[in-house]
UniProtKB/TrEMBL annotation:
It comes from Trichomonascus ciferrii. Keywords: Isomerase, Isoprene biosynthesis, Lipid biosynthesis, Lipid metabolism, Magnesium, Metal-binding, Steroid biosynthesis. The keyword Manganese does not apply. The lineage of its organism: Eukaryota, Fungi, Dikarya, Ascomycota, Saccharomycotina. Residues 101-251 form the Nudix hydrolase domain. This is Isopentenyl-diphosphate Delta-isomerase. GO terms for molecular function: isopentenyl-diphosphate delta-isomerase activity; metal ion binding. It catalyses: isopentenyl diphosphate = dimethylallyl diphosphate. Its EC number is 5.3.3.2. It comes from the Eukaryota. InterPro entries: IsopentenylPP_isomerase_typ1, NUDIX_hydrolase-like_dom_sf, NUDIX_hydrolase_dom. It is an enzyme of class 5 (isomerase). It holds the Pfam family NUDIX.
Amino acid sequence: MSSTQTVTSSSVEVNTRPAQLTAAQVLEEFPDVVPLGNESGSTTRPSSSSDQDSQQLFEGHDEEQIKLMDEVCIALDWADKPIGSASKKTCHIMPNIHKGLLHRAFSVFLFNDENKLLLQQRADEKITFPSMWTNTCCSHPLAIPTELGHDLPSSVEGVKRAAQRKLDQELGIVKDDIPLDKFKFLTRIHYVAPSSGAWGEHEIDYILFIRSNPKLAVNPNEVKDTCWVSPDELKEMFKDQSLLFTPWFKLICESYLFHWWNSIDDAEKFQDDEIHRML
Protein backbone atom coordinates (compact mmCIF):
# COMPACT_ATOMS: atom_id res chain seq x y z
CA MET A 1 0.00 0.00 0.00
CA SER A 2 1.12 3.55 -0.61
CA SER A 3 2.33 5.47 2.41
CA THR A 4 -0.03 8.27 1.42
CA GLN A 5 -3.11 6.05 1.21
CA THR A 6 -6.25 7.32 2.90
CA VAL A 7 -8.34 4.69 4.68
CA THR A 8 -11.92 5.54 5.51
CA SER A 9 -13.96 3.75 8.18
CA SER A 10 -17.33 5.45 8.39
CA SER A 11 -16.38 8.79 9.97
CA VAL A 12 -12.77 7.78 10.64
CA GLU A 13 -10.15 8.98 8.16
CA VAL A 14 -6.44 8.18 8.25
CA ASN A 15 -3.97 10.23 6.24
CA THR A 16 -1.17 11.25 8.62
CA ARG A 17 2.08 9.29 8.79
CA PRO A 18 3.72 9.56 12.24
CA ALA A 19 7.41 10.26 12.60
CA GLN A 20 9.74 7.24 12.56
CA LEU A 21 11.85 7.39 15.74
CA THR A 22 14.76 5.41 17.09
CA ALA A 23 14.66 4.02 20.62
CA ALA A 24 16.90 6.85 21.83
CA GLN A 25 14.63 9.45 20.22
CA VAL A 26 11.53 7.91 21.83
CA LEU A 27 13.10 8.01 25.29
CA GLU A 28 14.23 11.60 24.74
CA GLU A 29 10.91 12.80 23.31
CA PHE A 30 8.61 11.02 25.76
CA PRO A 31 9.73 11.18 29.40
CA ASP A 32 6.70 9.09 30.41
CA VAL A 33 8.21 6.06 28.61
CA VAL A 34 10.07 3.95 31.19
CA PRO A 35 13.03 2.13 29.57
CA LEU A 36 13.11 -1.65 29.69
CA GLY A 37 14.85 -2.86 32.82
CA ASN A 38 13.48 0.00 34.91
CA GLU A 39 9.90 -1.24 35.13
CA SER A 40 8.29 -1.68 38.54
CA GLY A 41 6.51 -4.87 37.46
CA SER A 42 3.12 -3.22 37.99
CA THR A 43 0.43 -3.53 35.31
CA THR A 44 -0.64 0.08 35.86
CA ARG A 45 0.89 3.51 36.30
CA PRO A 46 -1.67 5.41 38.44
CA SER A 47 -0.13 8.85 38.05
CA SER A 48 -1.04 8.93 34.36
CA SER A 49 -4.67 9.90 35.02
CA SER A 50 -4.29 12.25 37.95
CA ASP A 51 -2.77 15.49 36.58
CA GLN A 52 -4.67 18.54 35.38
CA ASP A 53 -4.26 17.72 31.69
CA SER A 54 -5.66 14.26 32.32
CA GLN A 55 -8.65 15.67 34.15
CA GLN A 56 -9.50 17.71 31.06
CA LEU A 57 -8.93 14.76 28.72
CA PHE A 58 -11.12 12.46 30.79
CA GLU A 59 -13.90 14.93 31.54
CA GLY A 60 -17.26 13.24 31.02
CA HIS A 61 -15.78 9.76 30.54
CA ASP A 62 -16.61 6.58 32.41
CA GLU A 63 -14.63 5.96 35.63
CA GLU A 64 -13.85 2.31 34.85
CA GLN A 65 -12.53 3.22 31.42
CA ILE A 66 -10.44 6.02 32.90
CA LYS A 67 -8.79 3.52 35.27
CA LEU A 68 -7.88 1.29 32.32
CA MET A 69 -5.96 4.19 30.81
CA ASP A 70 -3.37 3.58 33.55
CA GLU A 71 -2.46 0.17 32.12
CA VAL A 72 1.13 -0.06 30.85
CA CYS A 73 1.49 -0.65 27.11
CA ILE A 74 4.66 -1.70 25.27
CA ALA A 75 6.33 1.22 23.48
CA LEU A 76 8.09 0.10 20.27
CA ASP A 77 10.45 1.14 17.53
CA TRP A 78 9.34 0.59 13.92
CA ALA A 79 10.94 -2.85 13.87
CA ASP A 80 8.57 -3.95 16.69
CA LYS A 81 11.40 -3.99 19.23
CA PRO A 82 10.27 -3.01 22.75
CA ILE A 83 11.76 0.23 24.05
CA GLY A 84 9.93 0.56 27.34
CA SER A 85 6.54 0.90 28.98
CA ALA A 86 4.06 3.76 28.83
CA SER A 87 0.54 4.21 30.09
CA LYS A 88 -2.34 3.50 27.77
CA LYS A 89 -3.22 7.17 28.07
CA THR A 90 0.26 8.27 26.94
CA CYS A 91 0.16 5.90 23.96
CA HIS A 92 -3.28 7.00 22.76
CA ILE A 93 -2.99 10.80 22.76
CA MET A 94 -2.87 12.10 19.18
CA PRO A 95 -0.10 14.67 19.79
CA ASN A 96 2.14 11.82 20.99
CA ILE A 97 1.09 9.68 18.03
CA HIS A 98 1.94 12.44 15.55
CA LYS A 99 5.38 12.68 17.15
CA GLY A 100 5.91 8.98 16.55
CA LEU A 101 4.96 7.10 19.74
CA LEU A 102 4.11 3.52 18.72
CA HIS A 103 2.84 0.57 20.78
CA ARG A 104 1.99 -3.13 20.42
CA ALA A 105 -1.54 -4.47 20.05
CA PHE A 106 -3.42 -7.60 19.01
CA SER A 107 -6.65 -8.42 17.19
CA VAL A 108 -8.43 -11.74 17.79
CA PHE A 109 -10.74 -13.30 15.21
CA LEU A 110 -12.75 -16.08 16.86
CA PHE A 111 -14.71 -18.44 14.60
CA ASN A 112 -17.23 -21.09 15.64
CA ASP A 113 -17.81 -24.53 14.11
CA GLU A 114 -20.12 -22.97 11.53
CA ASN A 115 -17.24 -20.77 10.29
CA LYS A 116 -18.99 -17.70 11.65
CA LEU A 117 -16.94 -14.86 13.12
CA LEU A 118 -17.79 -13.37 16.50
CA LEU A 119 -18.06 -9.58 16.31
CA GLN A 120 -18.41 -7.17 19.17
CA GLN A 121 -19.79 -3.66 19.31
CA ARG A 122 -17.61 -1.61 21.60
CA ALA A 123 -19.40 -0.10 24.58
CA ASP A 124 -20.56 3.51 24.53
CA GLU A 125 -18.34 4.01 27.60
CA LYS A 126 -15.12 3.30 25.68
CA ILE A 127 -12.82 6.31 25.44
CA THR A 128 -11.47 5.37 22.01
CA PHE A 129 -13.73 4.29 19.15
CA PRO A 130 -16.91 3.98 21.26
CA SER A 131 -19.97 2.16 19.88
CA MET A 132 -18.10 0.84 16.82
CA TRP A 133 -18.32 -2.72 15.56
CA THR A 134 -15.09 -4.66 15.38
CA ASN A 135 -13.53 -8.12 15.48
CA THR A 136 -13.89 -10.40 18.49
CA CYS A 137 -11.34 -8.70 20.73
CA CYS A 138 -8.81 -5.91 20.19
CA SER A 139 -6.44 -4.77 22.92
CA HIS A 140 -2.81 -4.53 24.06
CA PRO A 141 -0.32 -6.82 25.72
CA LEU A 142 1.03 -5.28 28.91
CA ALA A 143 4.67 -4.43 29.58
CA ILE A 144 5.00 -7.33 32.03
CA PRO A 145 7.24 -10.42 31.71
CA THR A 146 4.44 -12.81 30.71
CA GLU A 147 3.19 -10.59 27.85
CA LEU A 148 6.20 -8.56 26.73
CA GLY A 149 8.35 -10.59 24.33
CA HIS A 150 11.66 -9.46 22.87
CA ASP A 151 11.67 -11.38 19.56
CA LEU A 152 8.83 -12.54 17.32
CA PRO A 153 8.23 -15.99 18.89
CA SER A 154 8.19 -14.67 22.47
CA SER A 155 6.10 -11.66 21.43
CA VAL A 156 3.54 -13.96 19.80
CA GLU A 157 3.34 -15.98 23.03
CA GLY A 158 2.91 -12.73 24.97
CA VAL A 159 0.02 -11.50 22.83
CA LYS A 160 -1.67 -14.91 23.10
CA ARG A 161 -1.60 -14.61 26.90
CA ALA A 162 -2.90 -11.06 26.63
CA ALA A 163 -5.66 -12.29 24.33
CA GLN A 164 -6.76 -14.86 26.91
CA ARG A 165 -6.83 -12.18 29.58
CA LYS A 166 -8.87 -9.72 27.52
CA LEU A 167 -11.31 -12.27 26.06
CA ASP A 168 -12.16 -13.13 29.66
CA GLN A 169 -12.33 -9.50 30.80
CA GLU A 170 -14.46 -8.28 27.89
CA LEU A 171 -16.56 -11.30 26.90
CA GLY A 172 -16.31 -13.67 29.85
CA ILE A 173 -14.66 -16.40 27.75
CA VAL A 174 -12.82 -18.80 30.06
CA LYS A 175 -9.28 -20.02 29.31
CA ASP A 176 -10.40 -23.64 28.84
CA ASP A 177 -12.37 -22.50 25.77
CA ILE A 178 -9.37 -20.65 24.29
CA PRO A 179 -6.17 -22.57 25.13
CA LEU A 180 -2.92 -20.89 24.09
CA ASP A 181 -2.00 -23.64 21.64
CA LYS A 182 -5.22 -23.11 19.68
CA PHE A 183 -4.42 -19.49 18.77
CA LYS A 184 -2.87 -19.11 15.32
CA PHE A 185 -0.66 -16.10 14.65
CA LEU A 186 -0.88 -14.85 11.06
CA THR A 187 0.89 -11.53 10.64
CA ARG A 188 1.37 -7.97 11.90
CA ILE A 189 -0.07 -4.72 10.56
CA HIS A 190 1.17 -1.22 11.35
CA TYR A 191 -1.49 1.48 11.13
CA VAL A 192 -2.49 4.85 12.55
CA ALA A 193 -6.03 6.11 13.13
CA PRO A 194 -7.56 9.08 14.96
CA SER A 195 -10.58 8.46 17.16
CA SER A 196 -12.51 11.31 18.77
CA GLY A 197 -11.05 14.45 20.30
CA ALA A 198 -7.46 13.99 21.45
CA TRP A 199 -7.47 10.20 21.15
CA GLY A 200 -6.27 7.74 18.53
CA GLU A 201 -4.25 4.62 17.73
CA HIS A 202 -0.75 3.98 16.39
CA GLU A 203 -0.06 0.27 16.67
CA ILE A 204 1.76 -2.76 15.40
CA ASP A 205 -1.17 -5.15 15.58
CA TYR A 206 -0.70 -8.94 15.88
CA ILE A 207 -3.45 -10.89 14.09
CA LEU A 208 -4.67 -14.03 15.89
CA PHE A 209 -7.18 -16.62 14.65
CA ILE A 210 -8.87 -19.20 16.86
CA ARG A 211 -11.77 -21.61 16.45
CA SER A 212 -13.99 -22.13 19.49
CA ASN A 213 -17.62 -22.34 20.59
CA PRO A 214 -17.39 -20.48 23.88
CA LYS A 215 -20.02 -19.40 26.34
CA LEU A 216 -20.19 -15.62 26.61
CA ALA A 217 -20.64 -13.53 29.73
CA VAL A 218 -20.37 -10.04 28.26
CA ASN A 219 -18.96 -7.18 30.32
CA PRO A 220 -21.33 -4.28 29.47
CA ASN A 221 -18.69 -1.70 30.37
CA GLU A 222 -16.60 -3.07 27.49
CA VAL A 223 -19.06 -4.54 25.00
CA LYS A 224 -22.43 -3.17 23.92
CA ASP A 225 -23.47 -6.04 21.66
CA THR A 226 -22.19 -9.17 19.91
CA CYS A 227 -23.15 -11.19 16.86
CA TRP A 228 -21.91 -14.15 14.82
CA VAL A 229 -21.59 -13.46 11.08
CA SER A 230 -20.79 -15.27 7.87
CA PRO A 231 -18.68 -13.49 5.22
CA ASP A 232 -21.81 -12.48 3.32
CA GLU A 233 -23.50 -11.21 6.47
CA LEU A 234 -20.47 -9.11 7.32
CA LYS A 235 -20.42 -7.62 3.83
CA GLU A 236 -24.08 -6.68 4.28
CA MET A 237 -23.22 -4.98 7.58
CA PHE A 238 -20.58 -2.90 5.79
CA LYS A 239 -23.29 -1.64 3.42
CA ASP A 240 -25.39 -0.36 6.33
CA GLN A 241 -24.53 3.33 6.64
CA SER A 242 -25.91 3.43 10.19
CA LEU A 243 -23.14 1.12 11.46
CA LEU A 244 -19.64 2.29 12.36
CA PHE A 245 -16.56 0.05 12.26
CA THR A 246 -13.14 0.40 13.81
CA PRO A 247 -10.45 1.42 11.31
CA TRP A 248 -8.17 -1.55 12.01
CA PHE A 249 -11.05 -3.97 11.42
CA LYS A 250 -11.91 -2.34 8.10
CA LEU A 251 -8.24 -2.42 7.07
CA ILE A 252 -7.90 -6.12 7.86
CA CYS A 253 -11.18 -6.96 6.14
CA GLU A 254 -10.39 -4.98 3.00
CA SER A 255 -6.86 -6.37 2.69
CA TYR A 256 -6.91 -9.90 4.10
CA LEU A 257 -9.86 -11.30 6.04
CA PHE A 258 -12.18 -12.56 3.33
CA HIS A 259 -9.27 -14.39 1.69
CA TRP A 260 -8.17 -15.93 5.00
CA TRP A 261 -11.71 -16.84 6.01
CA ASN A 262 -11.90 -19.68 3.47
CA SER A 263 -8.94 -21.46 5.11
CA ILE A 264 -9.47 -21.06 8.85
CA ASP A 265 -8.17 -24.52 9.72
CA ASP A 266 -5.16 -24.09 7.45
CA ALA A 267 -4.44 -20.50 8.44
CA GLU A 268 -0.77 -21.21 9.12
CA LYS A 269 -0.13 -21.03 5.39
CA PHE A 270 -0.79 -17.29 5.58
CA GLN A 271 1.69 -16.73 8.40
CA ASP A 272 4.60 -14.41 7.73
CA ASP A 273 7.26 -12.47 9.63
CA GLU A 274 6.48 -9.19 7.91
CA ILE A 275 5.15 -5.94 9.36
CA HIS A 276 2.64 -4.71 6.80
CA ARG A 277 2.71 -0.91 6.82
CA MET A 278 -0.76 0.53 6.25
CA LEU A 279 0.10 4.17 6.81
